[in-house]
């Protein structure tokens, strides 16, 4: 595992690991000065365990960091206070064998381009992103969750789900759409949903 943690002066990682192709895991956590990942992992193709981007209070940009990543296990994008857009952060990712967590990013406004090619995932959690207003276009190619649930909860300013999850037909466990105080429309989200093994909770 590559651990990049508790660095108080490094501001960017552009060009840091240009030849890294496979990794057991990537942990980018608790870096107070880090603002951008740049193209740090330009050829990274696969991670076997978790990819963690957590608790980096000044991180604003991860859009070009993982252009060739196709497969991962768990992905955490959590508690990055200044992260506003994910952009095309994972443009080639087609499979996540465990859950993707997008949580507690206080200024995150959009995730629409981040997972453009993702077709299968263990589960998806989108929670506690206070500035998130729309999920328009997010996870548009996701066909199913293989092991867990989809949770869209506690996003205080989320107004619409737009056309998110438009191709999702099967959810292994549950669909939770809860405690989004300003949610006024589900849009055309989940237009292809045929089967949910557990249940659907919208409240």
SSE diagram, text form:
Blueprint: E1 2-5, E2 22-23, E3 26-29, E4 46-47, E5 51-54, E6 71-72, E7 75-78, E8 95-103, E9 120-127, E10 144-145, E11 150-153, E12 170-171, E13 174-178, E14 195-196, E15 199-202
Parallel strand pairs: 1-3, 2-4, 3-5, 5-7, 6-8, 7-8, 8-9, 9-10, 9-11, 10-12, 11-13, 12-14, 13-15
Describe the model.
The structure is a single chain. With 203 residues, the chain is mainly β. Helices cover 0% and strands 29% of the residues. It has no helices and 15 strands. It has strands at 2-5, 22-23, 26-29, 46-47, 51-54, 71-72, 75-78, 95-103, 120-127, 144-145, 150-153, 170-171, 174-178, 195-196, 199-202. Strands 1, 3, 5, 6, 7, 8, 9, 10, 11, 12, 13, 14 and 15 form a 13-stranded parallel sheet that branches. Strands 2-4 form a two-stranded parallel ribbon.
Task: Describe the structure concisely.
Helices cover 0% and strands 29% of the residues. The chain is built from no helices and 15 strands. It starts with a strand and ends with a strand.
Distance between the termini: 40 Å
Largest sheet: 13 strands, parallel
What is the string of SSEs from the N terminus onward?
EEEEEEEEEEEEEEE
Oligomer: single chain
Level of helix content?
Answer: under 10%
Low-confidence sequence ranges: none
What is the 3D shape? Answer: globular
Output mean pLDDT: 97
Radius of gyration: 16 Å
Our count of helices gives: 0
Q: In total, how many beta strands?
A: 15
Q: Based on helices, strands and strand pairing, what is the structural class? A: mainly beta
């Amino acid at each position: 595992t590559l651990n990049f943690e508790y660095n108080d002066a490094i501001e960017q990682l552009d060009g840091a690991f240009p030849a890294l192709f496979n990794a057991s895991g990537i942990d980018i956590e608790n870096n107070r000065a880090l603002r951008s990942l740049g193209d740090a992992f330009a050829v990274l193709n696969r991670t076997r365990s978790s990819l963690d981007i957590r608790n980096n209070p000044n991180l604003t940009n991860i859009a070009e960091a993982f252009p060739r990543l196709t497969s991962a296990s768990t992905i955490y994008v959590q508690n990055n206070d200044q992260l506003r857009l994910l952009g095309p952060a994972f443009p080639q990712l087609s499979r996540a064998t465990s859950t993707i967590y997008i949580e507690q990013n206080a200024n995150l406004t959009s995730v629409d381009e981040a997972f453009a090619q993702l077709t299968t995932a263990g589960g998806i959690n989108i929670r506690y992103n206070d500035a998130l207003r729309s999920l328009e276009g997010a996870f548009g190619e996701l066909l199913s969750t293989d092991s867990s649930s989809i949770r869209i909860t506690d996003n205080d300013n989320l107004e619409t789900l737009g056309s998110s999850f438009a191709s999702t037909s099967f959810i292994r466990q549950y669909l939770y759409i809860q405690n989004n105080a300003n949610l006024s429309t589900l849009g055309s989200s989940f237009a292809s949903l045929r089967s949910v093994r557990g249940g659907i909770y919208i409240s």
